[in-house]
Amino acid sequence: MLTLPVEMLVSVTGGTLLQGSADTMVNGVFTDSRAIEPGGLFVAFAGEQVDGHDYLDQAIASGARALLVTRSADEMGDVVESATRRNVAIVQVSDVLAAVQALAQHHRERLFCPVIGVTGSTGKTTTKEFLAAVLGTRMKVVSTQGNRNNELGVPLTVMDAGADTDVLIVEMAMRGRGQIAELCRIARPTMGLVTNVGMSHIELLGTQESIADAKAELVEAIREEGVVFLNGDDAFSAALALSSRAPIVTYGLGDSCDVRAVDITVDDQSLASFEIIVGEVTTPVSLAVPGRHNVYNALAAAAIAMRLGLEPDRISEGLAGASAGEMRMQSFTSAGGVHVINDAYNANPTSMRAAIETLAGIASAERRIAVLGDMAELGSLAELAHFRIGEELAGKPVDVLVTVGERASRIADGARAEGMEPDRVRPCATPEEASEVLDDLLEPGDVVLVKASRVMGLERVVEGIVEPRV
Question: Is the pTM of this model over 0.85?
């Protein structure tokens, strides 16, 4: 983790030391006063909902050795006195985000491990989790936690790595042109992976070509001595490859891919098994995360792991034990005997189709129930995209469709238009209304898929299944 004296902290951030000794050492950077480890630097962000300056006393009490603030000494009142008593340094800067990014760049210059940048329209988080699980069988891995994949999260992830880190995996989100380039400027990845180019964020970027251009910023950031990994079956990978100065490794199902999967089978729980072929070497793999689409995520992780020298049996072992992350194809059975696939973290047309295919492939289900909410950031394509999901779902072995939200009501319209009986389609306005429907509907042996964009909060539906109303 980041370790440096306050004197260097002031120099790197261009800040002013308001209180304390320049010789004070800080270890680690924290933005949550409840999570501070003794000796850490607490960064007081002033957000729309919460202002970190209101928690400076708590940070001091929790063991912070330094505070990074934007307020003056007069504006902080008794905090300065409390900091003085406990020998806590206070550094004032004009922009805490810029200061954190500067600290991350400073820290990155002192890291000598491979740094893997991961982006893509779908699958980047699952691939990151698979990769961390595989590399973790032999290496000390630091990787993006939760949703720390933006202009604040990436610097914090970089500063989590230390001299003993064997590999750093940095997930990179994108909402517009130039953002991935900025994240690359901070993380300086030595390897880059683009999982695919889909429709997510099309509301902001307008076309898939523009999305591909934005993803290409990661490819362009990899130096000649690095490696770029691309989905050989994705239509935009050929264009992305033209942006690369580094060698390209492709993965996929096609015969021309450098790392490919063959003999894919899916069991009655929708868990995939297959063989990975690289040259003359064949490696059997079985996944614990449902969904045939996860074969691609596993191949991407395997391709990178092979490049880093991992043995085939280590790769197979790591993939067998890998999970997809919180609210990403999480599979469990409730106390009431209902099997739940919680994929409520995010959604776009590609991932929605993949999740529905997964549900449809669970042969052991008594009934298959899809709870689908709005897909965000689709712009003018929103109505048509939702309607088509419904049309396609009507042709699948899904017994009941529950939709949540205004946009998702078009999924219901599409399903009915393609012949799904009206009594099997239940449009709802809110997660709470959907939970009421499910309370009356669910029986032991049912399988329920819960899927929507994060803004819909469909985790509340999952909570309702776990703890139904009495």
Answer: yes
